[in-house]
Specification:
Distance between the termini: 27 Å
Largest sheet: 6 strands, antiparallel
CATH topology of the domain at 1-123 and 452-519: Rossmann fold
Shape: elongated
CATH superfamily of the domain at 1-123 and 452-519: P-loop containing nucleotide triphosphate hydrolases
Helix content: 55-70%
Length: 550
């Protein structure tokens, strides 16, 4: 439960601190005194977004801190999961800085808004006048039915499967779109791949092809040159090999008396042997150098085809063409891979859909079986609120699609008056009737809820007289199991509370501030008497206030 609330520099509040007790607490005050400001501050420490507009003094930060007794709520797993220090008395703090930034803390550990909101949803249920208007929403009505029937576990199990279903469905849609785009290119990619594959691309092979083609294109010139070289080295009458032999013979004649000649003779022998090898090699080249026009044509065609592919695909080398072929191959494999993924995801989606249908069916059955009890309980509470002739119906419609809450639509049909057929709430109920119906729903759901604290911000709008007293009695019943904090303008309700707080404005040095005080018995008499009076509080009003408090 909420044990204290401290607020600094928020709206009209400079600094105030409130202690809260168990049971039923009423908050009253004149219109505009700032009652709802308190609820706004409480909402902020429960995870509501805020900005610098809430700052009273724009040069300093706003600090809102709440203290909660969570000893009976079994929240240790939540604290462990979020790496937070658990304490039975937990502090939640929010700071809004002049820069516009916001910081949140749980037991002095910084947390994000998602974590703060997740904890807040387990601590407090704040009902505002805006929520009463939501009573006409089918989503709210479905949530109310589920809350009463106790479908929390079923709904959580369904939502887990629905999350998988939605993920798989989105994945399948993405893959199918990807497949559609790829299929449009598949024929063209296949053509490109076959064209490159047919060219039998190989960097080393292309280099040899070019060399062979060049040789065959100039074969006659090559043979002539090789013939001349062979003749000079070996075949002519005065060939180089014979001439070197003659030089060796000449030098040998002087070797006995000129030792350096031996060195020259050795060197000449090396030259002779090298020339002999060159003669044999050129002779071999001449024997292999027969020109083949068909081979030349074939090689020229292959070379020209690769040049054409380079030009077509804007590639400067055969290596770039090979890389392009690999890229196209990967794209074609990707198309095949997408097909396989679609098949795999489709099977998973079919399996998940069957499980989702099962979960949705369990929800539908639970809702159908719980409807009669909910209707009966609502009518009973409405009778206590002065609407004994009220008609309340629930119409459950099966949808043809899965939603985040199942495959049902729920509509509440209502009539507060005898002889008036039930109709849609938004078209038939007045403000006061809506308030009483909402209170009836909240009182029933609170019996099933584990939330320790409930806050009503003027849920009694449109209610007065005897009905106000009956409304207070319902709230008193709710406060047996929950801490109930009610902002009210009705003395009949305020008098039922165990604790009574008054919100008021003070003007000091031409500055208006909102403050709050816990009233003692005498102060309660005066406050309730003021709520019963016009401008001046009469003794009659005080006696009436005492009577209400009794």
């Amino acid at each position: 439960m909420l044990t204290s609330l401290s607020i600094k520099n928020y709206a009209l509040i400079d600094h105030l601190s409130i202690q809260f007790e168990r049971g039923f607490s009423a908050i009253t005050g004149e219109t505009g005194a700032g009652k709802s400001i308190l609820m706004g501050a409480l909402s902020i420490i429960l995870g509501k977004r805020a900005d610098t507009r809430v700052l009273n003094n724009k040069t300093t930060k706003c600090i809102i801190e709440g203290t909660f007794d969570i000893s009976s709520l079994n929240l240790q797993p939540f604290f462990t999961k979020n790496d937070l220090d658990y304490d039975a008395i937990t502090f939640v703090r929010r700071e809004i800085l002049p820069s516009g930034k916001s910081r949140a803390f749980i037991n002095d550990t910084p947390v994000n808004l998602t974590t703060l909101r997740a904890l807040g949803n387990r601590l407090v249920d704040i009902h505002s006048q805006h929520q009463t208007l939501m009573l006409a929403s089918s989503n709210f009505q479905l949530e109310a039915l589920d809350g009463y029937v106790g479908n929390g576990s079923l709904l959580a199990a369904y939502k887990d499967v629905f999350k998988q279903y939605a993920t798989l469905k989105n994945e399948l849609t993405t893959l199918q779109q990807q497949q559609y785009e790829l299929k449009k290119e598949e024929d063209f990619l296949n053509f490109q791949f076959e064209e490159l594959d047919k060219a039998a691309l190989n960097e080393e092979g292309f280099k040899k092809l070019e060399e062979r083609q060049q040789f065959l294109s100039h074969a006659e010139e090559v043979m002539n040159a090789l013939g001349v070289a062979n003749s000079i080295i070996f075949e002519d009458e005065h060939n180089l090999i014979d001439r070197i032999a003659l030089i060796k013979e000449t030098l040998s004649s002087i070797a006995p008396f000129y030792p350096k000649a031996d060195e020259l003779i050795e060197r000449l022998e090396s030259v002779r042997l090298e020339l002999k090898d060159m003669a044999d090699e050129t002779a071999g080249m001449l024997s292999e150098g027969e020109v083949n026009p068909a081979e030349l044509a074939e090689l020229t065609e292959k070379r020209d085809e690769i040049y054409r592919l380079q030009q077509k695909y804007r590639a400067s080398t055969v290596g770039e063409l090979i890389a392009l072929k690999k890229e196209i191959s990967d794209q074609l494999l990707n198309i095949s891979g997408v097909d396989e993924k679609i098949e795999k995801v489709t099977k998973a989606l079919d399996k998940t859909t069957k499980e989702l249908q099962k979960q949705a069916g369990a929800l539908t059955n639970s809702r159908k079986s719980g409807m009669a009890g909910f209707i009966s309980a609502i009518k009973k509470v409405l009778g206590k609120l002065g609407m004994k002739e009220a008609v309340f119906e629930i119409r459950l419609t099966n949808l043809n699609e899965f939603t985040a809450t199942g495959t049902n639509r729920v509509d509440f049909w209502f009539s507060a008056n005898k002889g008036v057929p039930a109709g849609e709430i938004s078209k038939i109920a007045s403000g006061g009737e809506l308030s009483r119906l909402m209170l009836a729903i909240k009182s029933l759901i609170s019996e099933k809820s584990m939330l320790p604290t409930m806050v009503f911000d003027e849920i009694d709008s449109g209610v007065s007289g005897d009905i106000a007293g009956k409304t207070g009695n319902i709230m008193l019943e709710m406060a047996k199991n929950h801490q109930l904090i009610v902002i009210t303008h009705l003395p009949q309700i305020a008098s039922k509370a165990h604790h009574h707080y008054k919100v008021y404005k003070q003007t000091i040095d031409e500055t208006t501030r909102t403050n709050i005080v816990l009233l003692d018995n005498n102060q309660r008499v005066e406050e309730i008497a003021a709520m019963l009076s016009d401008e001046t509080v009469s003794q009659v009003a005080r006696e009436a206030a005492k009577d209400l408090l009794r």
